[in-house]
């Protein structure tokens, strides 16, 4: 993969060999490292990873290396099965001269994005995730994180067209399945050429990047201590300095599991189709809810054991022979075979059971992968975990419990 | 509990597996009863034999799977027929009551039972039916039952089979498989929930994995989503549905294949993923939902089975359990998925007696007492 055309003379057209730490906040730069001055993070044609592994960030880039840095605006786009994730770099070090020369629509784009936190009826800027004072490719500015449903992509394209985005002559780096699916739409409706990047390449680089951009504030990477103890459960920072090998579990509409052995050496081990889309789809069918937030809200108030059949429902207690305690779920939704029980459960119970079922299944599959790949650290990312502490804690607990403490579940701030 | 007679186990010979959803019962009907024996036979023993063998349905929910009957079997020195009966665990109290009415306990036999219910209902058997259960582990029984049943051969046919060209409706064929040299074998037992065992020899096996997304999940979700009331009804609905109306496929996200990682466009990216859209929820039918539930649960089990096979380095996987009863759709899906995702390295096998191995194992447990 070639470098995008930013300031990395020593790399030329090859990958930087230490993808992690180039972006430093001012004052934290490493002396003597020629790549520090806004060098690109992680090379590869474009993707500048972002803390939001589900937000692959691709820098604006020309195709060939050794050009000066790409013109603004700098966007990275990940068009997923359910959500579009957009990162936007807002430069703060604009000189008077630059401002003078700035094209009107570039200015208007910047204003529109940074002075709103909501766009249209479904676009949202996650202000709490904003990374301030980042130095990227020699410029200083803020990194913004925006999302909207993939379903509304046509509206977004229309807006791009209205704001004459294409006249800015920038390449738009995009990843995710939608970069392929909607490529023609981008061209026809907004006159934009997409530079397509693989979603998992971007994901890896994003994860590796984000931990290094440790701006002031909480550590990017963290884990839960005592996950199922409501009183004693605490979030603890985790330094992902020597990350390899790492198992990366990306929970979007569906799930991909990657084994990462080094910055450039990873493979997609497996995946499962029972992901965030399944949770939301089933919840909508079973409870009549229509949004992710609503589904989570219901789940937080429900009791899944009314819906599930536990080991104790079958054994009358523990299944001792194989170490299965009575409270473990033997059959998810297993109590729902019985009509009277179906009539007695609430929507909240069903939402909870759906959450628990999907989450535990992901945990189970992850453990098997970790075992197979001989990896003990697992990082869970993806928008299924957004504002979904319940699932995070379940994952944390189940990893620890079933592996007798061998496996550790880690999470990242910017996935949420 | 010791047997009183070291040489002969007294009739009736039963093996019982009380699962989360179904009770599986095997009953050995001796056909070599001598005149003398018949003379001595206690009345209630005779009546039990008559009741079981002259009916194919019991009460409103009990069923004898006559097509599975093993005729002319020699078991523990006696010749007879092995019958396979099932009824919902929900109706166990009725069964116990019946045992009481027929004075079963006066026959002084041990009742060998396995499955979770052997523990859960032990008390009820004692207090209501005046019967002492001899409890055996369900997985021990499963393994022993499975290894045993393949040997007498199924009335001349193979007990074990696989599917050739699983997803090609024109060319798909059921082919016999010789399980004579079975080890190592991965056994995937799909009941209410799923247990996965790696079997290395007759006495050496371990439970390597499991999942709570099993037959009970399929039936439970189907009941909620379609209002259906039985397993057979759920399968009926599923056979007429199209799961791609509910699922989000790779091509729905990529517009085609996800080539980089060899994911074809027709692969499911997100099960039920299209159900996040209101219009699609309104357009989908009960049949589609039933089908999607079946496909989702089946494929998930297939994945877990495949990964277990890889982890354990075993390339033969036999699927058993009543989730597969009259469920050719799931069997073919499993066969295909395993073949496809393992690049034909792993073979999916099936057995005619599906969900009865635990009960057979319990019967053997009774007989091997001596």
From TrEMBL, chain A:
Broad EC category: transferase
Segments for region (Disordered): 1-73
Coiled coil (residue ranges): none
Compartment annotation: Cytoplasm
InterPro entries (alphabetical): ATPase_NBD (IPR043129), Type_II_PanK (IPR004567)
Molecular function GO terms recorded: ATP binding; pantothenate kinase activity
Domain of life: Eukaryota
EC number: 2.7.1.33
GO cellular component: cytosol; nucleus
Keyword Transferase carried by entry: yes
GO annotation, biological process: coenzyme A biosynthetic process
Keywords attached to this entry: ATP-binding, Coenzyme A biosynthesis, Cytoplasm, Kinase, Nucleotide-binding, Transferase
This protein's pathway: Cofactor biosynthesis; coenzyme A biosynthesis; CoA from (R)-pantothenate: step 1/5
SUPFAM superfamilies: Actin-like ATPase domain
Keyword ATP-binding: yes
Role description: Catalyzes the phosphorylation of pantothenate to generate 4'-phosphopantothenate in the first and rate-determining step of coenzyme A (CoA) synthesis.
Family label: Belongs to the type II pantothenate kinase family.
Summary of subunit composition and partner proteins: Homodimer.
Name of the protein in question: Pantothenate kinase 3
Taxonomic lineage of the native organism: Eukaryota, Metazoa, Chordata, Craniata, Vertebrata
TrEMBL record, chain B:
Reaction catalysis annotation: (R)-pantothenate + ATP = (R)-4'-phosphopantothenate + ADP + H(+)
Entry annotated with the keyword Transmembrane: no
Subcellular localization: Cytoplasm
GO molecular function, one term: pantothenate kinase activity
Keywords recorded for this protein, A-Z: ATP-binding, Coenzyme A biosynthesis, Cytoplasm, Kinase, Nucleotide-binding, Transferase
Gene Ontology terms: cellular component: cytosol; nucleus
Keyword match ATP-binding: yes
Enzyme Commission code: 2.7.1.33
Function, in words: Catalyzes the phosphorylation of pantothenate to generate 4'-phosphopantothenate in the first and rate-determining step of coenzyme A (CoA) synthesis.
Family: Belongs to the type II pantothenate kinase family.
Assembly, per entry: Homodimer.
Entries under PANTHER family matching the protein: PANTOTHENATE KINASE, PANTOTHENATE KINASE 3
Protein name as annotated: Pantothenate kinase 3
Lineage: Eukaryota, Metazoa, Chordata, Craniata, Vertebrata
């Amino acid at each position: 993969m070639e470098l995008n055309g930013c300031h990395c003379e020593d790399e030329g057209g090859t990958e930087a060999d230490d993808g992690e730490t180039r972006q430093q906040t001012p004052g934290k730069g490493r002396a003597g490292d020629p790549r520090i001055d806004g060098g690109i993070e992680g090379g590869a044609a474009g993707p500048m990873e972002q803390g939001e592994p589900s937000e692959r960030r691709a820098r604006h880039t020309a195709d060939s290396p050794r050009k000066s840095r790409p013109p603004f605006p700098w966007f990275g786009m990940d068009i997923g099965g359910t959500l579009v994730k957009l990162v936007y770099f807002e430069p703060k070090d604009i000189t008077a001269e630059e401002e003078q020369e700035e094209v009107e629509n570039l200015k208007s784009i910047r204003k529109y994005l940074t002075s709103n936190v909501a766009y249209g009826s479904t676009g949202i800027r996650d202000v709490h995730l904003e990374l301030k004072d980042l130095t990227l490719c020699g410029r200083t500015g803020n990194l913004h994180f925006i999302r909207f449903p993939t379903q509304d992509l046509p509206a977004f394209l229309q807006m791009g067209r209205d704001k004459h985005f294409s006249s800015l002559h920038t390449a738009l780096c995009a990843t995710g399945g939608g970069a392929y699916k909607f490529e023609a739409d981008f061209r026809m409706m907004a006159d934009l050429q997409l530079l397509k990047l693989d979603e998992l390449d971007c994901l890896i680089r994003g994860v590796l990047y984000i931990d290094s951009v440790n701006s002031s504030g909480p550590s990017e990477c963290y884990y839960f201590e005592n996950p199922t103890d409501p009183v004693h459960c605490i979030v603890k920072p985790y330094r992902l300095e020597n990350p390899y090998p790492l198992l990366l579990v990306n929970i979007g509409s569906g799930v991909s599991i990657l084994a990462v052995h080094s910055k450039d050496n990873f493979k997609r081990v497996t995946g499962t189709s029972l992901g965030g889309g399944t949770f939301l789809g089933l919840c909508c069918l079973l409870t009549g809810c229509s949004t992710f937030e609503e589904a989570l809200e219901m789940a937080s108030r429900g009791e899944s054991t009314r819906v599930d059949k536990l080991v104790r429902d079958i054994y009358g207690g523990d299944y001792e022979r194989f170490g299965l305690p009575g409270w473990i779920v033997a059959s998810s939704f297993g109590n729902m075979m019985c009509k009277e029980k179906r009539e007695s459960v609430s929507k909240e119970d069903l939402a909870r059971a759906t959450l628990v079922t999907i989450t535990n299944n992901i945990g189970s599959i992850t453990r098997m992968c970790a075992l197979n790949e001989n990896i003990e650290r697992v990082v869970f990312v993806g928008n299924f975990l957004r504002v979904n502490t319940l699932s995070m804690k379940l994952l944390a607990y189940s990893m620890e419990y079933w592996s007798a403490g061998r496996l550790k579940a880690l999470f990242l701030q910017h996935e949420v | 509990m010791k047997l009183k007679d070291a040489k002969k186990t007294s009739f009736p010979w039963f093996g019982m597996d009380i699962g989360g959803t179904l009770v599986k019962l095997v009953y050995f009907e001796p056909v070599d009863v001598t005149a003398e024996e018949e003379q001595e036979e206690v009345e209630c023993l005779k009546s039990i034999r008559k009741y079981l063998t002259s009916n194919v349905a019991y009460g409103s929910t009990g069923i004898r799977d006559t097509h599975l009957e093993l005729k002319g079997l020699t078991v523990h020195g006696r010749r007879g027929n092995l019958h396979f009966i099932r009824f919902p665990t929900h109706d166990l109290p009725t069964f116990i009551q019946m045992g009481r009415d027929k004075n079963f306990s006066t026959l002084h036999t041990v009742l060998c039972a396995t499955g979770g219910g052997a523990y859960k209902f032990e008390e009820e058997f004692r207090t209501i039916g005046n019967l002492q259960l001899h409890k055996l582990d369900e997985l021990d029984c499963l393994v022993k039952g499975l290894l045993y049943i393949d040997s007498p051969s199924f009335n001349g046919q193979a007990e074990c089979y696989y599917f050739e060209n699983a997803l090609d409706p024109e060319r798909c064929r059921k082919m016999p498989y010789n399980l004579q040299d079975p080890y190592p074998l991965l056994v995937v037992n799909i009941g209410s929930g799923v247990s996965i065992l790696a079997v290395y020899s007759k006495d050496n096996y371990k439970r390597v994995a499991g999942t709570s997304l099993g037959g009970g999940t399929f039936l439970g979700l189907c009941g909620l989503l379609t209002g259906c009331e039985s397993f057979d009804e759920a399968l009926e609905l599923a056979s007429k549905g199209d799961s791609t109306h509910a699922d989000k496929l790779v091509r729905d996200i990529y517009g085609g294949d996800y080539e980089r990682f060899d994911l074809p466009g027709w692969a499911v990216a997100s099960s039920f993923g299209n159900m996040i859209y209101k219009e699609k929820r309104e357009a989908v039918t009960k049949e589609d939902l039933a089908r999607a539930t079946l496909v989702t649960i089946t494929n998930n089990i297939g994945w877990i089975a495949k990964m277990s096979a890889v982890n354990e380095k075993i390339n033969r996987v036999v699927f058993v359990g009543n989730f597969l009863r009259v469920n050719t759709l799931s069997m073919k899906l499993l066969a295909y998925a395993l073949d496809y995702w393992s690049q034909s390295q792993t073979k999916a096998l099936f057995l005619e007696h599906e969900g009865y191995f635990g009960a057979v194992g319990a019967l053997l447990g009774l007989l091997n007492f001596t």
